[in-house]
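Hey, I'm writing a tutorial for new members on how sequence and structure tokens pair up, and I'd like a real worked example in the thread rather than a made-up one. If someone can provide the structure for the chain below, I'll link this post from the tutorial.
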Amino acid sequence: MADLRREETSRPTRRSRPGWPTLLLLLAVCYAVAALGSVAAGSGETYRALDRPSWAPPGWLFGPVWTVLYGTIAVAAWLALRGDGDSSRTGRVPAMVWWSVQLALNLAWTPLFFAADAYGWAFADICLLLLALAATIVAFARRRRAAALLLLPYAAWVTYAAALNLSIWLLNA
């Protein structure tokens, strides 16, 4: 009988894994970052007025791309919190610390680039963002591979944005 109780208590419970309310909270956090970034970016006049490389995307593309990416950032965090079907909390805190750091750096980029016209500082920020994002992907992969894979389009877009940021900085210096 004691062995049966021990087995029952060692099995993961639904309460030990973050559920839908956690996902909704993560989505709210990510879309709050998006909203703050949108306010900092303003009307898009700054982007249109800049000298840009020929491969720069049109301004209207950023909104739809970031809307999708912020959703995947939130879902990835939720999957990482849930882990690989076990109740283990191993690695949960470092994964979420890195996720928070990359999200804070993401938030800092827009006012640096658009509000302050500090393209060099924005480039430094986006380079740090890429490092934090790489650490987040590694930490998420340790928790749940799908969580790490969901961040790959975000990493690709941020890499592209870093190249664009550098190019704009050089063209407008």
